[in-house]
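Handout, section B. The chain below has 160 residues.
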Amino acid sequence: MPAVDFAPHKKGDYLVDYEEKVFPDVKAEPGEKALVTFHTVAFEGSIGFVNLLQATRLLRKGFETSILLYGPGVTLGVQRGFPKLGDEAFPGEQNFNNQLVKFMEEGGKAYACRFALQALYGHGEPSLIPGIRPIHPLDVLDLILLHRRDNAFILDTWTV
């Protein structure tokens, strides 16, 4: 059996070079847009939260940024909490809500499909986090096409 002669890592150690940035810090040109679409269920993986962070980062880089919640993605935009809305039942339970609120407070726009909200997940418009704009299901594709027409950067969030 081989012996392990290395000292164990301890709190405060670095395991990677976190300071080296390989690529330039890209900023938006005037008028550039971005759209981040979400077709993923809240709490079913990290992709929804990670791309909420990406949307906020795009906004801070100067892109006029919108979020589209459709299909299971509308679950990211509903108010949650336990025992009351807004209460954090466990650490991180309000991550989606808090990040969406921060995104909108910083000037981002958020849209949620009314069909998915009601027909798929049994919620009404009052269930949405204030500031999220409910849209007709036919607006989902048109929102994407409008961003495409404007040569926007589009980041799609899908999980299966």
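Note. Residues 118 and 124 are 6 Å apart (CA to CA). Compare this with the example in section A.
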